[in-house]
């Protein structure tokens, strides 16, 4: 395949590199991962934009930077589209990408499950000697969530500070476990990036749950069982992974391309 527009690598090579890191087989069965938009006329890839969520602003950002590809952690095409018209923002994005020949790939839960992925990034907030998937996959080293055994006990105050540091957040939400105080120690942590209620609800032997969001009654249940809960907002428990992965991906592709991280991507919720 050739391209008169400049140097770069073919789309298939980028996809192979992404799937060497996190095979599609690691994704949950309900998920919609992989190549979601492929323009009819191929272009070599010279720039990739990484984003947690693909909004119209982020799509325009990719175009402004001259990116031929977007890797969006969350798949913007999830429910089936019955049309590609201008009345819906998701359909406008697909139309915009096709018109400007920008490919779209979404890894989502394959990045959660894989070793060195989003959950392992979130786990890096803590000093641990063992991290195991809460719901193991076919490979026992991959799967949903992580259960951490810490090197040494830390206070809940320190745990909160560590989460803020790794996520670059000024505020998180905290539910104290029944009978617990901020000075109580944490020995074990169960975490799940994103919406972790379904993964965490059957964990009984953790001192602390960490996730992006949980239903009120799941938080209440955990707290009544003596488990403290830290919530960051959904995508704030995931987005920070992109910073480190951008350089990893660029290196994996032998620095033949430039990998950028979106400056417009942010969680829709803020604490005011």
TrEMBL record:
Residue positions binding a divalent metal cation: 74, 112, 234, 238
Stretches of the chain forming a coiled coil according to its record: none
Keywords noted in UniProt: Metal-binding
Keyword Metal-binding: yes
GO molecular function list: metal ion binding
InterPro entries: DUF34/NIF3, DUF34/NIF3_sf
Keyword Acyltransferase: no
Pfam families: DUF34_NIF3
GO cellular component, one term: mitochondrion
Domain of life according to the entry: Eukaryota
Family: Belongs to the GTP cyclohydrolase I type 2/NIF3 family.
Protein name: NIF3-like protein 1
Organism of derivation: Papilio machaon (Old World swallowtail butterfly)
């Amino acid at each position: 395949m050739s391209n008169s527009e400049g140097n770069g690598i073919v789309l298939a090579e980028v996809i192979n590199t992404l799937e060497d890191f996190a095979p599609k087989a690691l994704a949950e069965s309900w998920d919609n991962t992989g190549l979601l938009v492929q323009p009819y006329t191929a272009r070599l890839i010279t720039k990739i934009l990484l984003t947690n969520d693909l909004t119209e602003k982020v799509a325009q950002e990719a175009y402004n930077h001259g990116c031929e590809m977007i890797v969006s952690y969350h798949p913007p095409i999830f429910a089936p589209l019955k049309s590609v018209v201008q009345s819906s923002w998701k359909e406008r994005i697909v139309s915009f990408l096709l018109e400007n020949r920008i490919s779209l790939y979404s890894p989502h839960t394959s990045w959660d499950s894989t070793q060195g992925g989003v959950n392992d990034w979130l786990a890096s907030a803590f000093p641990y000697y063992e991290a195991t998937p809460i719901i193991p996959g076919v490979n026992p080293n991959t799967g949903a969530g992580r259960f951490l055994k810490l090197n040494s006990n830390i206070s809940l105050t320190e745990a909160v500070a560590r989460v803020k540091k790794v996520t670059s957040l000024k505020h998180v939400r905290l539910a104290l476990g029944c009978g617990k105080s901020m000075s109580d120690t944490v020995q074990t942590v169960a975490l799940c990036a994103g919406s972790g209620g379904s993964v965490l609800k059957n964990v009984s032997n953790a001192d602390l749950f960490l996730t992006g969001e949980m239903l009120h009654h799941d938080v209440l249940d955990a707290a009544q069982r003596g488990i403290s809960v830290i919530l960051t907002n959904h995508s704030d428990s995931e987005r920070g992974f992109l910073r480190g992965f951008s350089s990893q991906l660029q290196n994996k592709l032998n620095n033949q391309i430039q990998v950028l991280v979106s400056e417009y991507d942010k969680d829709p919720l803020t604490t005011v």
